[in-house]
Specification:
heterodimer; A: 141 residues; alpha+beta; Archease, Possible Chaperone, Chain: A, domain 1; 5-stranded antiparallel sheet; 3-stranded antiparallel sheet; 2 helices; 8 strands; B: 484 residues; 6-stranded mixed sheet; globular
């Protein structure tokens, strides 16, 4: 399901509403929404590959840590993904491994927008309603 | 704001009493003005009254006139906590630890820079990295970054990036203690190490501003602060600790979440997660916050180093001839130990300021010698179309507001609405027509940061001036702007 970016909860920042038929879809959709706040993803290539592994004590923490990891990779590796592949997601002892295909940030080529600095807990939510996984996240800009 | 339980207790003070919400141990006070009070929405009231429920809070939870919705505390929130029974909360400091303002004076006037303005803007934009993915011009080893975390601007002084005079005119001399790099994660270091000396994005900016004689409200104090000529050129810098501070806040929100669960603490809002100041977790965060505050002081100082280099190159003069000197540097996202009279008894408390500036009155030893007789300079950032303001701290702030005042204009319109209301190109054209040249890597960001998205800065500084928690000294108008 395509994500939506909205201002329902915050004047200074941006809220992401994401969803998916499966948890994997939700996690990919949420990541795509986060990256789209930062850059026009169509301007990114997928020449560089980064693998990542995230854990959480429960599903909510896994979801938070997944998005926080993408922000960390953006700053530490100067990397933004165009394509996000979830290789494995386990709900018990929640763990996620993913492969990110993208590029090192290049201000001269990539259509960069605004930086996302953190995932907040404000209105943070992951839930399953009528067989659809939904996530709500406000990002600190 | 409209609710029968809010009580106007002074011309510019509204109080929410403790019976407003279960768990409030002190009232909440909204410092505002009749003109601005309606801009304080109910979510701000909800957040500031949540703050009034935190353990060990003293006197009242305060919200400044530029207040708006934040995470945990509202932006513009100020609260003080007892050291033995109080808490420390990352949500009371903000993700961007020690986000703040630096104001530089120069010996130049508008007429002297006017012919070189496009060149000056272009060179500043090329020299001061901004926007997503920008890297600082100083390559740092892990060892050097550790020194920055622990020593702040003293590292800049030792390495030729700052002068003694700079350090004298930065809050806390440009370094916070205690700061202990061992309390900081590797992840935070990895995020921050490449970003020192960069503006970032969002509402961060570097602006060349002008001090017009008609906008000086207090000539004597202005002269003490270094405003000594008509149409003087100034430089204002707004930024913080970049990804480093954000990672410190992210890390410790999780630490405090686990602490809360382990100790069965009732959490009203996850963003208000906190730990007792005297707990191991609380002390570790306090020291990590000190590291992030130090990195932010260094970040702004390295930008100042770049600004001086640009001015030397463009105008072919020495630093001494140009007089690009620090007026002051203030933190507006921070927690500090300070001493106040609490109900007739002197007490050291941990003052959280989130989107609020220290505003110490005359005589306090923390103020540089040069300014001690008048009070601490307070730098207030406006939107990029309206420029900044210079205020002065007062004894009334010390008495009534834990030595605090506002920090900016205060956002009223969301980024998404602002982008719908105007195109960046149109904002750029309008600014150019009114004499402001602006450069950015992200054009829609100009709409997001346009004056329409903020409260009127004159209204908010009038409110604090009338309250007496700071005095108006001068207003500056922008001529060049780099939006991060």
């Amino acid at each position: 399901m395509p994500f939506k970016l909205t201002d329902i909860y915050s004047t200074a920042d941006i809220c992401l509403l994401a969803s998916g038929q499966t948890l994997e879809e939700l996690f990919v959709d949420s990541a795509a929404g986060l990256i789209e706040i930062i850059v026009d993803r169509d301007s990114l290539g997928d020449k560089r590959k980064i693998g990542c592994r995230v854990e959480g004590k429960d599903l909510e923490e896994l979801y938070y840590n997944w998005l926080a990891e993408l922000i960390y990779i953006k700053d530490a590796e100067l990397f933004l993904p165009r394509t996000i592949v979830i290789d494995r997601l386990t709900e018990t002892g929640p763990t996620l491994t993913a492969t990110l295909y993208g590029e090192t940030i290049d201000q001269s080529r990539h259509r960069l927008k605004v930086d996302v600095k953190a995932v907040t807990y404000y209105k943070f939510k992951i839930e399953k309603i009528d067989n659809l996984w939904r996530g709500e996240v406000v990002f600190d800009i | 704001m409209s609710h029968e339980k809010y009580r106007r207790i002074g011309p510019n003070i509204w109080e929410v009493p403790t019976d407003f919400k279960d768990g409030m141990t002190v009232p909440a006070r909204i410092l505002s003005s009749p003109k601005l009070i309606d801009s304080i929405d109910n979510r701000v009231i909800d957040q500031i009254t949540n703050v009034a429920c935190l353990p060990g809070i003293r006197r009242y939870a305060l919200c400044m006139p530029d207040g708006h919705v934040g995470y945990g505390f509202p932006i513009g929130g100020v609260a003080a906590f007892g050291l033995s029974d109080g808490v420390i909360s990352p949500g009371g400091i903000g993700f961007d630890i020690n986000c703040g303002m630096r104001l530089l004076r120069t010996n130049l006037t508008l007429d002297e820079i006017r012919p070189r303005m496009p060149e000056l803007l272009g060179k500043l934009f090329a020299t001061i990295p901004s926007g997503v993915g920008s890297k600082g011009f100083v390559r740092l080893s892990r060892g050097q970054f550790t020194e920055i975390m622990n020593r702040g601007c003293r590292w800049c002084l030792d390495n030729g990036y700052a002068t003694d005079d700079d350090l004298r005119h930065i809050e806390n001399g440009g370094y916070l203690e205690p700061a202990d790099s061992k309390t900081v994660s590797d992840k935070a270091v990895s995020r921050g190490i490449n970003q020192m000396g960069t503006l970032g994005s969002g509402n961060h900016y570097l602006e060349v501003e002008i001090s017009a004689p008609e906008n000086i409200y207090d000539r004597e104090t202005a002269a003490v602060f270094g405003l000594d000529r008509d149409y003087q050129v100034l430089v204002a810098i707004h930024c913080g600790s970049r990804g480093f501070g954000h990672q410190v806040a992210t890390d410790y929100l999780q630490v405090f979440g686990r602490y809360g669960k382990g100790h069965g603490l009732k959490i009203r809002d996850k963003e208000l997660m906190s730990a007792p100041i005297d707990s191991d977790e609380g002390q570790r965060y306090f020291r990590a916050m000190g590291c992030a505050a130090n990195a932010a002081f260094v970040n702004r100082q390295l930008i100042v180093y770049g600004v001086r280099q640009v001015f030397r190159e463009i105008f072919g003069k020495t630093d001494r001839e140009l007089g690009v000197d620090t007026i002051y540097d203030v933190a507006h996202n921070i927690a500090k130990m300070e001493r106040y009279d609490i109900d007739g008894r002197e007490e050291t408390v941990l003052v959280h300021r989130k989107g609020a500036t220290r505003s110490f009155g005359p005589g306090r030893e923390e103020i540089p010698d040069k300014y001690r007789e008048v009070g601490q300079p307070v730098i207030v950032g406006g939107s990029m179309e309206t420029g900044s303001a210079l205020l002065c701290g007062t004894a009334l702030a010390d008495r009534d507001a834990f030595g605090s005042t506002l920090h900016g204009a205060g956002r009223t319109m969301s980024r998404i609405k602002a982008r719908k209301a105007a195109r960046g190109e149109a904002v750029q054209k309008r600014m150019s027509e009114s004499g402001i040249l602006v450069k950015t890597g992200y054009m829609p960001g100009l709409a997001e940061e346009a004056a329409m998205a903020y409260k009127n800065i004159d209204d908010v500084i009038d409110a604090v001036d009338e309250l007496g928690i700071s005095r108006k000294v001068a207003r500056f108008y922008p001529v060049l702007n780099i939006k991060g």
